[in-house]
Specification:
Length: 183
């Protein structure tokens, strides 16, 4: 955390780049477990060696003020270029604040829910071009939750397929571990 404070004090603009920096990413999964158990699982008999210390994972914005976030795992190169170009030109980049479903529909993709896949598209921030659903894979949530999800619409989709909010939340563990969400 100290290094982040130093970087923040020197940076005019600080950008959290990628899922790990923007939301804590997959690394944040370990926060769901006892840290000693995690170390023992990974390092076995060497778990107590001092150079293998570990802490709870935090997104950069949980430690210092972040000016912009470029979401995704991996980040979308077009979005990365767009954000950097805007900042170099003194403009404020617009980061999508609508769900992946919007991009899926714009591409003419069939809804993966209709094929029995639990896709997180209704509650995850767009900007990836619906990369995973366009390839036949469900959205795993690497771009993080949209700030104001249409919870009622998401609930309707789940009810249509006989699922509950609790079930959907159980599917949010990969990239959504310990993130705040309002479903």
């Amino acid at each position: 955390e100290e290094r982040l404070w130093i970087i923040r004090s020197r940076a005019k603009i600080l950008i959290a780049l990628g899922a790990c920096a923007a939301t804590g990413g997959i690394n944040k999964l370990k926060n769901n477990f006892d840290l000693q158990d995690v170390k023992e699982c990974v390092y076995g008999k060497d778990a107590d060696m001092p150079h293998l210390s570990t802490d709870m994972v935090k997104a950069v914005g949980e430690v210092v003020n972040v000016d912009y976030k470029i979401y995704g795992c991996p980040v979308d190169r077009k979005e990365f270029t767009y954000v950097i170009r805007c900042l170099l030109l003194g403009k404020k980049p617009e980061i999508p604040e609508y769900p992946v479903c919007v991009e899926c529909k714009a591409k003419g993709n069939p809804c993966l829910w209709d094929y029995g896949q639990v896709c997180l598209g209704p509650i995850i921030r767009a900007g990836c071009g619906a990369r995973c659903p366009s390839s036949g894979f469900r959205c795993f949530g690497c771009r993080g939750y949209i700030d104001n999800p249409n919870a009622e619409a998401a609930k309707e989709v789940m009810e249509k397929h006989g699922l509950t909010v609790e079930y959907l939340k159980s599917k949010m563990v990969l990239f959504g571990s310990k993130q705040e969400h309002t479903l």
